[in-house]
Amino acid sequence: MTRARPVLALAAALAILSIAAVRPVRAAEAKRYGVEGMLLDYDQAKNIFKVKVTSPKVSGGFGTGGIAGDPPSDIKSGDVIELQVVPEGSVLKRTVIKASKGGGLDTTGTKEGFDKAVALIPKDRSVVLSFEDQSGPPKYLLKMVQIRLTPEEIAAHLRELGIDPNEVKQDGESAN
């Protein structure tokens, strides 16, 4: 019987360790920031976007809904910032480029798919950029780019649906 106790104790310790090993450890969620900006350049070799900030705070528009995060205190309108991108891999790990209120423009998870999605980012208007701090240069890791519809694109979609854009309420105004 004396040999049974150490064996049982060892078995219990191994069971506890195996349970602890498979239980996911929750990392602290990173602080998410958001700005509006225009893509100036994409360095494919270094996986870096160079962006000119047009507004340090994400404003209005369909599909913004606070998902971008608060503006960082050290970024001002007119600043040019670099953002690290992750062009491939799991949708949970890579940088996602989305259409307004839609899904990702790249569903492949490949560098080629990402490059095609980058080509769809308009160069003539701002997009919403959502990013987090990272430890190395550049200072920020880009998590999501959201391309918003212009007022003209919204009006065209409404007309396609048979709705007169002039009858739609905007910014709390009455349609009548």
Give the gist of this structure.
It is built from 3 helices and 6 strands. The chain is α/β, with parallel strands linked by helices and 176 residues long. Mean pLDDT is 80; it is low at 17-26.
Structure report:
- Helix content is 22%, strand content 25%.
- It is of the alpha/beta class and 176 residues long.
- The chain has a domain at 32-154.
- Strands 1-2-3-6-5 form a 5-stranded mixed β-barrel.
- The chain is globular and about 50 Å long.
- The chain starts with a helix and ends in a 16-residue tail after the last helix.
Features:
176 residues; alpha/beta; 5-stranded mixed β-barrel; 3 helices
Overall morphology: globular
What is the helix tally? Answer: 3
What portion of residues belong to β-strands?
25-35%
Query: What low-confidence regions span 5 or more consecutive residues with pLDDT below 50?
Result: 17-26
Mean pLDDT: 80
Strand numbers in spatial order across the main sheet? 1-2-3-6-5
Largest sheet, strands/sense/barrel: 5 strands, mixed, barrel
Helix and strand content put the structural class at: alpha/beta
Percent helix, as a range, is 10-25%
From the N-terminal CA to the C-terminal CA, the straight-line distance is 89 Å
User: Roughly how many Å is the radius of gyration?
Assistant: 23 Å
SSE run: HEEEEHEEH
How many strand segments?
A: 6
SSE topology:
Elements: H1 4-22, E1 32-43, E2 48-55, E3 80-84, E4 96-99, H2 111-119, E5 127-133, E6 140-147, H3 151-160
Parallel strand pairs: 3-6, 4-6
Antiparallel strand pairs: 1-2, 1-5, 2-3, 5-6
